[in-house]
Write a structure and sequence with these properties.
The protein is globular. Helix content is 25%, strand content 29%. Strands 1-2-3-5-4 form a five-stranded antiparallel beta sheet. The protein has one domain: Phosphorylase Kinase, domain 1 (2-Layer Sandwich), CATH 3.30.200.20. The termini are far apart. It is built from four helices and five strands. The chain is of the alpha+beta class. The protein binds adenosine-5'-triphosphate.
């Protein structure tokens, strides 16, 4: 585990920065909930300026644990694609395991699929 942490050291974000971006995990900043746990949004300060980010907080009660967290860090930091959300970093501090992603301003695909504004296309 130590070697993994060393390899991805450049992606480490301090818990202090996460708390500042999410107003200390304020409920008003929650944008969703998935198998991993709650997802918050916030402005992350990076060397290139502020970036809107999604903060996925691991909730161990929801079944997914540490291995999935590190798998996600390894996969997303190695593969980049225009159709793949970028991993901005992670926080593993003070008992918190948080993945930081680029914020998808259009929301997730499942939101669009359940949207009532979806237009039906008929092909003749
Ligand atoms: N990068 C992101 N940008 C904007 N919103 C996001 C982002 N990631 C997650 N969300 C929001 O949080 C919700 C939960 O996302 P999450 O990926 O945790 O769950 P999921 O899509 O149900 O997948 P799973 O259950 O496999 O974890 C999404 O439906 C979406 O609304």
């Amino acid at each position: 585990m130590d070697s993994i942490m060393k390899e991805f050291e450049h992606l480490v974000v301090k818990l202090k920065e996460v708390k500042s971006a999410t107003d200390n995990f304020n409920d008003a900043k929650i944008i969703g909930k998935g198998g991993f746990g709650y997802v918050y949004e916030g402005e992350l300060s990076q060397p290139r300026g502020k970036t809107k980010a999604a903060f996925k907080c691991l909730d161990r009660k929801h079944g997914q644990g540490g291995p999935e967290f590190w798998k996600e860090v390894m996969m997303l930091s190695r593969y980049t694609h225009e159709n793949l959300i970028s991993l901005l970093g992670y926080c593993n501090e003070g008992g918190e395991m948080i993945l930081l992603y680029e914020h998808a301003s259009n929301g997730s695909l499942d939101r669009h699929l359940s949207s009532t504004t979806l237009v039906r296309i008929y092909v003749s």
